[in-house]
Amino acid sequence: MQNTRRDFLLRSAALSAALSLPVSRVLAQPRFDRNPFVLGVASGYPQPEAVVLWTRLAPDPLHGGGMPEAPVAVHWEIAADVRFRKIIDRGEAIATPQFAHAVHVQARGLAPAHWYWYRFMAGDAVSAVGRTRTAPAVDDARGRIAFAIASCQHYEHGHYAAYRDMAQQELDFVVHVGDYIYEGSWGRRDKVREHHTTEPYTLADYRNRYAQYKLDPHLQAAHAACPWLVTWDDHEVDNDYAGDRSQDMDPVDVFLQRRAAAYQAYYEHMPLPPGTWTGGPDMKIYGTHAMGNIARIQLLDMRQYRDYHVCPRQNRKAGGNQVNVLDCPERTQPGRSLLGATQEQWLENALAQSPARWNVIAQTTLMAQADRGIAEERVVYTDGWDGYPAAREKLLRYIAARKIRNPVVLGGDVHFAMAGNLKTDFDDERSPVVASEFVTTSISSLGPARARIEALLAKNPHVKFANGARRGYAKFTVTPRRWETSFRAVVNVADDQSRVYEMANYVIEDRRPGPQRDKS
Ligand SMILES: [Fe+2]
Q1: Burial classification of residue 86, based on how many CB atoms lie within 10 Å of its CB (0-12 exposed, 13-18 middle, 19 or more buried)
Q2: How far is the CA of 330 from the centre of ligand 1 (A)?
Q3: Are 336 and 329 in contact (CB under 8 A)?
Q4: Is the model's pLDDT at 318 over the cut of 90?
Q5: Cα–Cα 20 to 30 A to 460, which of 74, 239, 256, 262?
Q6: What is the mean pLDDT of the chain?
Q7: Which residues face 242 on adjacent strands?
Q8: Are 273 and 393 found together in one domain?
Q9: What is the distance in A from the centroid of ligand 1 to the CA of 159?
Q10: Interval 482-511: pLDDT, tens
Q11: Residue from 48, 246, 203, 8 nearest 135 by CA
Q12: Same-domain status, 218 and 128
């Protein structure tokens, strides 16, 4: 995009200084009439000696950001103490209009498993202080890690009391497994709050949508409390998309333009490593994250590389569906892939090479077979692993054959909390438990009807716990011998000060797959 000097003059109202500078010159000492750091700060992707720091300059966040079409210098620093007396690393980043004046920097020279504090400065504006933590040393096998997973935070469906609670939990990190924003409105007639724009299609639209979500103080608090790892599901782009296919079967080039805009805006608002988005509709976000030798997290991308859905709804051209399994034999075709061949191969290698005590697969949705039929008939949901059963069986057979140590699958998407057993044959009671599964309920998105959960529990004996009545998140405390899961539940999602309590807890003992009710 070419920026004229006239555009620059018109758009620089928020920045009263430096009007005489040429557009290409970096504004080193900008003056702001309004706080440019209202979207908060975040950190992510912790390594033993490094962590990513994020912010975005946006004095007018809901209307494009309010920044001039010029690069701006942003200073950052990270310290071993909250008063910034012992600075460990600092630097200058250039926030550019091409990236919505977002800043992604890698802080280095840190010590493993330590807390740090960081902040940003632009002109005379100073950001809030964020806290972050490095990963344990690579060979650390003794420690204890605590982390949470979150997913599905529809803005209109509720407040983020779950994040208020999460920020108080002394977590080492958070994993977000998708639906960070929602592109559409659905489900709740009595909206708790409202999207301020219509469905996003362009880069500008998606930026404004992210800005609205990120203005939430509890979400900001959870980001400022510890580093995050993130992956996306469908709603960061469009409901039920699959690779280059939208649910409305838009022309591929049109949809890929939209996907590029959505992916860029995702990068601009997440604490992803610098350079994760390199332009265009592709962006690699799956990868391995080591937490010493205690846990290794394989974080998956379930959208970009998947095969198209089979058996779409009658009134739609594509996308997921609830199908009677007898009406959709295409579903079980061998070779249908949810991850794509490259990611599948990478995942198998990563699992086989892991020295970790606990091998976490963090992905977006429920992995266990889930017959959701209220009556006798077997009904499954094709947008999740039940739409790709051959790929699921292949992965679980691989985990069993390679004797992967303590595999734990984590997911979200379904808006109910779940603990269960993963098996290579869910229909055979004698089939051994291969891995454990925990699914978090939604942060705020509307849950399923009670009858659905009752049917799920009645018809799927490998599902040990399911609750769709509460919003919340799942917290894990992991030591070499024991994995503890605490399902945290929000009493009233319409109240941002709602009480949050533990609705269930489960444990896994080393080398004994399958969640057990915690009796300790
Ligand atoms: Fe969702």
Answers
A1: exposed
A2: 25
A3: no
A4: yes
A5: 239
A6: 94
A7: 245
A8: yes
A9: 15
A10: 999 999 999 999 999 999 999 999 999 999
A11: 48
A12: no
Q: Are residues 432 and 404 in the same domain?
A: yes
Q: Give the CATH number for residue 351.
A: 3.60.21.70
Residue 63 pLDDT exceeds 80: yes
DSSP H/E element including 447: none
Residue 445 Cα, ligand 1 centroid: separation in angstroms?
6
Distance 382 CA to ligand 1 centre (A): 15
Instruction: State the residue range of the domain holding 245.
Output: 145-517
Residues 343 and 433 in one domain: yes
Residue 285 lies in a domain: yes
478 beta partners: 145, 483
| Residue 159 lies inside a defined structural domain of this protein | yes
State the distance from the centre of ligand 1 to the C-alpha of 147, rounded, in angstroms: 21
Ligand 1 center–CA 179 separation, angstroms: 5
Give the pLDDT band (50/70/90) at residue 444: very high
413 CA from centroid of ligand 1 (Å): 5
Give yes or no for residue 10 having a pLDDT over 80: no
Cα(156) to ligand 1 centroid in Å equals 12
Residue 139 lies in a domain: no
CA–centroid distance, residue 240 to ligand 1 (Å): 10
Centre of ligand 1 to C-alpha 236, Å, is: 10
Residue where one domain finishes, among candidates 78, 106, 133: 133
Distance from residue 321's CA to the centre of ligand 1 (Å): 15
Query: Which helix (H) or strand (E) element contains residue 484?
Result: strand 482-490
Cα end-to-end span (Å), the chain: 61
CA of 414 to the centre of ligand 1 (A): 6
Structural domain contains residue 140: no
Task: Report pLDDT for 16.
Answer: 36
Average pLDDT score over residue span 81-90: 98
pLDDT in tens, 357-406: 999 999 999 999 999 988 889 999 999 999 999 999 999 999 999 999 99
- The Å distance, Cα 417 to ligand 1 centre, comes to 13
For the CA atoms of 203, 205, 207, 213, the dihedral, rounded to the nearest 10 degrees, stands at -150
Distance 33 CA to ligand 1 centre (A): 37
- pLDDT given for residue 28 in this prediction: 81
SS (H, E, C) 52-120: EEEEECCCEHHHCECCCCCCEEEEEEEECCCCCCCEEEEEEEEECHHHCCEEEEEECCCCCCCEEEEEE
Clarify whether residues 318 and 438 are in a common domain: yes
CA dist., res. 141 & res. 84, Å (int): 31
User: Quick one: 44 and 157 in the same domain?
Assistant: no
- Ligand 1 midpoint to CA 362 (Å): 16
Does 45 lie in the same domain as 154? Answer: no
469 CA to centre of ligand 1 in angstroms? 15
d(CA 419, ligand 1 centre) in Å: 18
Residue 11 has pLDDT above 50, yes or no: no
What is the distance between the alpha carbons of residues 53 and 220, in angstroms, rounded to a whole number? 14
CA 368 to ligand 1 centroid distance, Å: 17
520 pLDDT band, cuts 50/70/90, is: low
* Boundary of a domain, candidates 107, 133, 159: 133
- Domain count across the chain: 2
Asked if 217 and 268 sit in the same domain, the reply is: yes
